[in-house]
Amino acid sequence: MAHGIVSYGAYVPRHRLQHREMGAALGNGPTRPGKGSRTIASYDEDSTTMGVEAARRALGTARPSAIHFATSTPAYLDKTNATAIHAALDLGHEGFAVDMGGAPRSAIGALRAAAATGGLAVLADLRTGLPSSADERGGADGAAAFLFGDAGEAIALVVAEASASAEFLDRWRVPGELASRSWEERFGQEMYMPLIKDAVSRALAAAGIEQADHVVISSPHTRSAGAAAKLYPGAVASEEGAPGYAGAADVGLKLAAVLDRAAPDQTILVVSAADGCDATVLRSTTRIADGRAALPVLGQLHGGRDVVYATYLTWRGMLDREPPRRPEPDRPAGPPSARSEAWKFAFVGSRCEACSFVHVPPVRVCKSCHAIDRMERIGLAKNEGTVATYSVDRLAFSPSPPMINAVVDFDGGGRYTLEVADASPDEVQIGTRVQMSFRRLYTVDGIHNYFWKATPLRVAEGG
Fold first, then answer.
1. Which residues contact 388 (CB under 8 A, 6 or more apart)?
2. Per-residue pLDDT tens for 377-430?
3. Is position 304 within any domain?
4. Which of 263, 285, 315 lies at the terminal end of a domain, its last residue?
5. How far is 374 from 361, CA to CA, in rounded Å?
């Protein structure tokens, strides 16, 4: 069965690091910071949490049979990260979830696997470089997800594909290292450009076109990406996808930005030059206007919340600061996490069948009418809510104090106390509207404690 993209979603973190802030903190160093900014994930975000947010936006009510997760910065090694995404999407225990990690080219592997099976491709990454480096300045964090399904329901169809592979040492990072290293720029361009020209020419020939209406060019090698953009008219500007290179998510964010504005029956050339080159030609369908993402990429890029350079370094683990004088949290335990999987990962509560009272977390005995074992399952992750009251803790154990805790009344019933993310105390008050976001509460002994936080609704909408 032929498959095409039936829906998609993108996630751009709210926080921004201004280039001028880097320059003011460390001086220009070997690279000049210049104007502009880069997107940065918060201290409680990683490739898994960002992947969940992009996947939620892509899926709606769909339930994919497979998840292919691509990242070059996995939260875990020797453990599948896609299973956490699968659980957070409340997909039960049926289906296939697999990581395609290690390098940015895994994004193309995830997209092709999802296209072949009619599954979900999730692409997410955090890009971190050494202080004052080009990678730090030119990186970006973010995620994108693409659901593939029946061609008759697709908003874009894959028309042709071509690939070229070569083994050369241009960029590398060994396990345990925080930042990548790269060879001299000229060498990379000499290796990449013949591969790009070869793959693109074969893809265009197979599609039966001389040039495409839109061109996406993604590469960790900045000079090659710039040179390729001059060869192929219609290339997407970097600010239309991510203000910087977003690793495995980069090609997805830029493709999503094109789908946000493409007209029906237009061709899209996607060029991903990473350890070779993969060229794909897609054609939008008449369903494109009705299938656009609710939160366009450009809308998420506008605005944002600036952080100072010292905060960014702290979030990335490159600056050790004295923590609050509070006991560290206990290490999350595997057995109770497994027993409460639906609650912990999918934020599932229960509704009493006798009196309709909603319990968060789920219980067996109704707190209202005391009925026993008369509960129906209710997912709350998609529900919005209202802050009933809140507190600000300036001494909490947190990489980014103060911590805001809010009692949230959910639309349709249910109340729970949640940490508020991506907001300062002056942005939260009684009556603030919030929605849920999958985050990392803390990490102890290498174990990530994932759960849900509340974010002010305007933040979730890109404000």
1. 406, 407, 408, 409, 415, 430
2. 999 999 999 999 999 998 887 888 899 999 999 999 999 999 999 999 999 999
3. yes
4. 315
5. 15
Give the amino acid at 74: P
Sign of CA dihedral 246, 252, 253, 255: positive
Residue type, 330: D
Cβ atoms 159, 182 nearer than 8 A: no
- E-state strands within 209-347: 214-218, 267-272, 276-284, 305-306
Domain match, 220 and 347 both: no
Q: For 233-260, what is the HEC assignment?
A: CCECCHHHCCCCECHHHHHHHHHHHHHC
Give the CATH number of the domain where residue 301 resides.
3.40.47.10
Q: How does pLDDT run across 305-320, given as a tens digit for each residue?
A: 999 999 999 999 888 8
Q: Are residues 298 and 343 in the same domain?
A: no
Q: Answer for the pair 170, 187: CB distance below 8 angstroms, yes or no.
A: yes
Q: How many helices (H) and strands (E) does the chain have?
A: 13, 22
Q: Do 309 and 338 belong together in one domain?
A: no
Give the CA distances from residue 326 to residues 332, 401, 419, in Å, rounded to whole numbers and listed in that order. 18, 13, 17
Helix, strand, coil percentages (3-state) for the chain, rounded to 5, are: 30, 30, 40
Could you say which of 267, 283, 315 is where a domain stops?
A: 315
Structural domain of 143: 3-315
Q: Are residues 311 and 276 in the same domain?
A: yes
Count structural domains, the chain: 2
